[in-house]
Amino acid sequence: MWNGYFEWLPIDYYYYPQQEMYENYYSNCIDPTYENFQNPQYNYQSSVYDTNFDLNKDLNQFINNGMEPIIETYSGNIENRKQYEHEQLILNELWQGNYIQTHKGDPLLHWTIMQGLAESACAMIRTTELELLNALNTDGQSPLHLAVLAKQPRIIRELILAGANPEMTNYRGNTPLHLSCSIGDFQTALALVSPLNSIEYYYLRPGIKIPNLPPNLEIRNYEGQMCIHIATSSNYIELVQLLIDCGANVEAREGLTGRTALHLAVERGYESIITFLLQKSKTCLSTKNYAGKTAYQLARNSNTSLKITDWTPDYFIANQSNCNIILENLDILDEIPLLNNAPLHEFKDKQLVRFKGMIQDMHDPEYYLQQYEVKNNQTETFELKSGMYIDTAKCLPHETILLESEKNQNSERHTCIVISIPGLNDWEKKTYKQLHCSKLINRYKRNLDEDNCELMDCSESIRKKEKIDDNKKIEYDTRQSLVSEEYILNFPIPINDGKACIVKIYEDMTLKLNQIIEIIGFISLDPFLNIVHSDETMTEAEITVHHPPASLVPRLHAIKIIQSIKQDIKIVSEVMSKAELIRNDLHLILSELLFGDHLAADYLICHLLSSVYMRRDYFCLGTYPLNITHFPVIKYKEFPKDLYKFLNLLVKKSHLLEITLENLNDLNLIPKKDYECNRLTSGVLQLSDNTHLIIDETGLTAGQITQAGRENYNAICDLINFQKVTYDFKFYKIEYETDIPVLILSEAKSFIPCQTQIILKIDSESENLYSQVKEIAEQYLKDENRLINIRQYLEIIRDSKFELNDEDVIKEIQNDFVQWKQINKNVDNLHSLMVLSRLLSLSYGSNTLTIEYWKKAVQMEIERLNRLPEKK
Fold first, then answer.
1. Whole-model pTM?
2. What's the CATH class of domain 305-437+485-564?
3. Which residues of 29-54 are buried (b: 16+ CB within 10 A; e: fewer)?
């Protein structure tokens, strides 16, 4: 009898907007003729209304349950007047007031919604006062909360159109959306967050404010949880996606323990939500809970895919997108064992490791089977396997690799030789974070015999496998025994516990010789690599160099290469703010070590901060080589070594080069190409940028210089003046740019041309007490905070930006330039003075040049020049 009551509403009234992002969820719901919809009783989008709706029956049922009726008048556009009068008669007889309540005080509307009487509830909603729509029953639930619990999305939309507040909280602080996430009902959640469409705007109750949908997703319940935390905890991935698409903050932390959605998913092992959060929402893996733990740190103690130490080549290939996101977090990378500081026997084959080093040589690309087909001889089945990130193909005894298969895919990978960073000082090695626990590593160890593999060709051509007989093993072992370890490692300077790796790179990237990189990759320690080579055209010398024992030179299959790491902004701002105080500490130490010479200490600080910032034609801007002379070498023969000892406590990379006549003639300072073994033989000057080179000339004597000595001399001169080293490729030469600060310590002016010479002004008291001065300086630097501040100061100031845009300063420089030329000073000295003023300003923490610092630099240069003997 009440069907006509709803005829004034169009069918579309019960549709709410279909957002494009959710069409895949509702392709079945939109079609009202769809026969297999799983929950037709909850399909508020259906175009067929309940034909059995009878308000009289519903109200009588309500009264028979012991409830007191209160008369309320309905109004509506009813065409049948008699039907309308009958409705009014029923209402006048049954309702005696504004509300019908149970003995507990629950309103009729709340009871109707809980009973699932959708048509009755919708009729009441349109005539019920606004206060009742947001009223809580005795259980602390509003009509919207009850509609969610009853899984009635149609009633939810009716309530919202009538003015119900979607942000109303119940007795536990939960909004209706909290409850939707708790019970995992996607339809009710979508009804709560979808904005009104144009038709719904037409039927909005007059006088109410247009509801703001989606509602505030940052509301917390009394347990500090937002909707996204509840949906994640309940493993409802569709709701998590819906909330994030509606703008939920994936990094929001719940109030009790500070866990994010990712923390919660990791703790419960919800792989699908973890994958979604990593791939779609780009969640930040460095966010910590109130206990200071990241999601990854929690994953280490759980069985989730986040544990980076468990990765294998197969796992990485299958989950590459997820893994790449995890690799973007530098804090997580610290959990990977560091190859630099642990012996190779503590690692297992195919283990994920880190290696920090310098690119010493680059080889031609090598070809390999990116994908290959394997035949199972027992079952006569075929399988495709990946050849990426491994050197040996997986092949069990009952399997055969089909090298002629059309499904095989050949590809190429770049190879380079990466060695431990030359000149890296011990204190910097200790700062490398590493996962170095033998028990943890040994837990994953297994017998290499478990992997019964067949070797996969990895060179310039793909050829069939060959069996290795005992004679070939003996031949290889004999060849290796004739070559020294030093020759194979090919370090430019001695490196304690140094390592070399053959790195195989699968992605295209721009790398250059002598560049410092950090490689994340799978280590290959397969002993078969020591025996088999893949190119019969290679000479024995070439085989020895390119296929060294894996126990000496392991292979590293890179999945990520880090070329540079930016300084922490907080540390940079902190250091710059107290730069002058740190400079005072550094100046105090250096001036005492330089026999009380404060001017020399100023110049040495500027030298330590120097770095190439621009190259123009033949000029190299920013470099500031320094020659310190006239120290008491007879009385203190060890002064150069003593000074170097203190300097390598302050800078990350340094090397002391003692220049004697013998060393000048015999040392290999220049890298040279060895075509017999097809590799670049390193030289002493093959150093990475910002490696401080201290040259000690105190042992140099007169004598005959050989051709090699002249080449070495020219190489040092080019390094100092132009910051470049010319590599010898026998048939041609190639110039490589460098950024190596050079400090020369000599009794008199260096035989190597150096523009800036500072003659020490010895303080007699400091000279007599020099032994005590060294001890005091050592004690002074034992203050860990002071030492760290100085180290950070030298690193950060060196890389700081500098501007010269003050017109007054520029005019002052121009005036001084004119005066400088009038007294016949060399123009190069003016260039040197500009560099000095820049470095001096930076040393005080100033990123711009002021007149004060310019005048100070001029005064320093005048005083330095006055110490030099007059030219005859």
1. 0.72
2. mainly beta
3. beeeeeeebeeeebbbbbeebbeebb
